[in-house]
Amino acid sequence: MKIIGLTGGIACGKSTVSKALRALGACIIDADALAHELSQPNQALFNAYVQRFGMAIVTPGGTLDRAAIARLIFTDPTMRAEVEQISHPLIRRAVEERLRMAEKEQKRAAVLDVPLLFEAGWDALADEVWVVALPPEEQLTRLLARDKTMSEGEARARIAAQMPLAEKCARADVVIDNSGTKEETRDYVGKLWEERIFGRA
Q1: 3-class DSSP state for residue 152?
Q2: Which of 8, 28, 63, 78 makes an SS bond possible with 12, Cβ 3.0 to 4.6 Å?
Q3: What are the sequence ranges of the domains in the chain?
Q4: Which residues contact 30 (CB under 8 A, 6 or more apart)?
Q5: Which parts form a coiled-coil structure per UniProt (predicted)?
Q6: If DSSP codes are grouped into helix, strand and coil, which group holds residue 156?
Q7: Contact status, residue 201 vs residue 195, Cβ threshold 8 Å
Q8: Annotated binding-site members for ATP
Q9: 88, 50, 93: which is closest to 69 by C-alpha?
Q10: CA separation for the pair 114, 65 (Å, rounded)
Q11: 3-class DSSP assignment, residue 15
Q12: Nearest to 165, CA basis, from 128, 112, 123, 118
């Protein structure tokens, strides 16, 4: 089974590529979805966050206040490091368990869909890394279109909080330019699947 690490800049269209790979038969292991599962009340990540940050990060309904955590992460680098120190080991354990399941199911490829693949050091789990990229101004435009409540300053801060996209591209085995249409991206992903998973030129 080939393991692909899939990452990219915020709002660059990683989910489009992930969906295309799922449609081709890849097992998608989505780190954000796993984090969401683990963040439900009384799950491991929820309990760890509450133990560290108290009830200020819990909504009146008893669920995790994601907006409060996002504010912590994107305004204070020290706090971001602390949140990652809590969350990454728990999520990685869940990722490794899903990889074992995919191996048992004899999947041809598993895709680690991880926004912070390089930052967390999880590229070491992958046989190769695919990065989804956009030109900087296009990335900013798409982020602002995706989240209408975000100011341009906040959007730039979110982008700046991640590893520079140029650095991710330099470290990638494959760079997927997502500045075209969704159809063009899907076609290119299909071509990559044939070439890199099945070894067909």
Answers
A1: helix
A2: 8
A3: 1-26+112-193, 38-107
A4: 18, 113
A5: none
A6: helix
A7: yes
A8: 11-16
A9: 50
A10: 21
A11: helix
A12: 118
Please report the beta strands in 51-191, taking only residues with DSSP state E, as ranges in sequence order. 109-113, 128-133, 174-177
Residue 29: which H helix or E strand, with range?
strand 27-30
Q: Is 189 exposed, middle or buried (0-12, 13-18, 19+ CB in 10 A)?
A: buried
- Going by C-alpha positions, the residue among 2, 1, 3 that lies closest to residue 112 is 3
Which superfamily does CATH assign the domain made up of 1-26+112-193 to? P-loop containing nucleotide triphosphate hydrolases (3.40.50.300)
Binding residues: 11-16
> How confident is residue 4, by pLDDT bands cut at 50, 70 and 90?
very high
Which tens digits make up the pLDDT trace of 67-82?
A: 889 888 878 889 989 9
Q: Which two tokens stand for residue 74?
A: 């994107």
Give yes or no for a contact between 169 and 131, defined as CB atoms under 8 angstroms apart.
Answer: yes
